[in-house]
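hey can u check if this looks right to u? its 311 residues, i copy pasted from the old doc so theres a chance i mangled smth
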Amino acid sequence: MSSKTYAGIPQEYAKLETSKIVLIPVPYDGTSTWQKGADKGPEAFLNASENMETYDIETATEVYQQGVFLADAVTENSSPEAMVEAVHKTTKHFIKKNKFVTLFGGEHSISIGSIRAFNECFDNLTVLHIDAHADLRKSYQGSACNHACAVYEASQTTNLIQVGIRSMDVKETTVLDPEKTYFAHELATNEFWIDSAIDQMTDNVFITFDLDAFDPSILPSTGTPEPGGLFWYETLDFLKKVFTEKNVVGFDIVELCPNKIEKSSDFLAAKLYYKMLSYKFMGENVEDDYDNTYESKAQKNNVTKFNDDEY
């Protein structure tokens, strides 16, 4: 176990036993099809986080004091299928420990494993997919665990809401649900899109956030940048409302492809992760009692019970 902590926080806030939050790095880039380098994303994200101010002005909180445990990275890369299963197994392990589980990739194929774990553990799950790409191929380049297939399984097994989409293959139109898809070109002219998207969500929400959802003018360092993306404050407005109105049960952030010269993307990713945590815990005081019993946590979040031998 590494002595390194998330954002360089003191060890007292980084112990598994007392942390509410778990961060799982997944440095995987096995199926990307254009620019390589997403496997370096977690390291760049963590380095940027160490140089980030930990007081959040908007929420007037220091969310790291809720405790953030930095788990060992999932390094399985023998095949996309093996990686997905390793992510699934690790994610489910920490959910069972009653932690708020987060992941940082790596390319988007890692989300197949994280979504599968959350869907098995939480009833009636909505997957909020924020991305430039639809990622709805059933298989691609011989694998159902390709980054182009990141949310196909979610489209079949969960309530999938897609936001920011502006690139897709014609075959994906047969899978995509137009009533639950908020295309990037429509957001600028639809002032009610945030309320509409939230109204279609169930109570339990998992967020998978592909950083290429952002416009490349503010985040160029991603493997497949697409013009016409989201901007910072509109994204935060949306996320804050989701966290306020729904029970966000976890999230992952993927597709940071770091550039040795351009570091602002790394810092945006670091800030986004911290803002999402801040929104999740902004109503809780650090000194609040934290019930670590699995039974009560399961009842609170409508968690599906599972047997001890399942992991």
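The chain has one domain: 6-288.
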